[in-house]
Amino acid sequence: MLADRLPPLNGLRAFRAAARHLSFRAAAEALNVTQSAVAQQVRGLEQALGAPLFERHARGLALTPAGEALLPPVEQAFRLIADAAERIMQQAEVLTVSATPSFVSRWLVPRLDGFTRRHPGIDVRLSASNDLVDFRRDGVDIAIRYGTRVDAGLSAQLLFPADPVAVCSPALCRAGGTLDPADLGTRVPLLHDSHFLWGEWYRAAGRDEAEARRGVRFSHTLHAIEAALLGQGIALVPRPLVERELRAGQLAAPDLGISLPPARGFHIVAPPELWDTRKVAAMRLWLLSEAAG
């Protein structure tokens, strides 16, 4: 038979199910169609082939020699189709995640193997950048961003609050783990990142904001934290990024008497049309479970 003159595919599907169960009724239940539909599709296949495929008995069906000859290649063909479809679907499941380098390094990467174990069919691509992405132009599916608000055109969900905390090496603190705010920018250098939160702190404290511009400025929060760990000054950073070091006593969080308003957090954001897709939903739910646990 020529390749472009295949038997009716619905008939082959009905034949396969009926041959497995040797019953039109059971085949119909498996295919979620009526028994008469299965019988009609099998008859159409038999007419196309010019040979009976089943012997009809009161107690069920039996394969004819033609049916026995047809069943193995039909089973193989359906397995090949299913395997090819599965490979294509797995190849298509690439998830591109955008987040700041500090979040990626200090929060996401240490946990990421939990997602890949749970969803082995999704290949994750991490894009670490402080820049706000254009989801369509940059091919990004989902992002995690820090701040007080998100773009109104995006779907968003709070991952967790992340109020800033001032951290430094315990060696820079005075007795009892305290730090005199007057030491800021003098005995204890200020360490800045791209958010420039020390400027907000100085305004809240009623101090000259120009003083807040002194110190070392880093493009990434990650580097400001590393400098604080090395005793090079005091950094004002999102608390979730330094929780591990605070618990271990590697960093101290001295009370400076002034706290910034608790309005910041890490947010999950994505275009509305991607929000409920399988791969984005899988990442969203996993992120939330990690944040809660």
Walkthrough of the structure:
This protein is of the alpha/beta class. The chain folds into three domains: 9-90, Arc Repressor Mutant, subunit A (Orthogonal Bundle), CATH 1.10.10; 93-160 and 265-292, Periplasmic binding protein-like II (D-Maltodextrin-Binding Protein, domain 2, 3-Layer(aba) Sandwich); 164-248, Periplasmic binding protein-like II (D-Maltodextrin-Binding Protein, domain 2). It contains eleven helices and eleven strands. The strands form three sheets. It has a five-stranded mixed beta sheet with strand order 4-3-5-11-6. Helix 1 crosses helix 2 (24-31) and helix 1 (9-21) packs across helix 3. The longest helix has 28 residues, at 65-92. The mean pLDDT is 91.
Which tags fit this structure?
single chain, 293 residues, alpha/beta, Arc Repressor Mutant, subunit A, D-Maltodextrin-Binding Protein, domain 2, 3 domains, 5-stranded mixed beta sheet, 4-stranded mixed beta sheet, 11 strands
Q: Tell me the helix content.
A: 40-55%
The figure for the number of domains is 3
Low-confidence stretches: none
Q: Give the SSE order as H and E letters.
A: HHHEEHEHHEHEEEEHEHEHEH
What is the H level of CATH, i.e. the homologous superfamily of the largest domain? Periplasmic binding protein-like II
Distance between the termini: 61 Å
Oligomer: single chain
Class inferred from helices and paired strands: alpha/beta
CATH class of the largest domain: Alpha Beta
- Using the alpha-carbon principal axes, give the shape: rod-shaped
Largest sheet: 5 strands, mixed
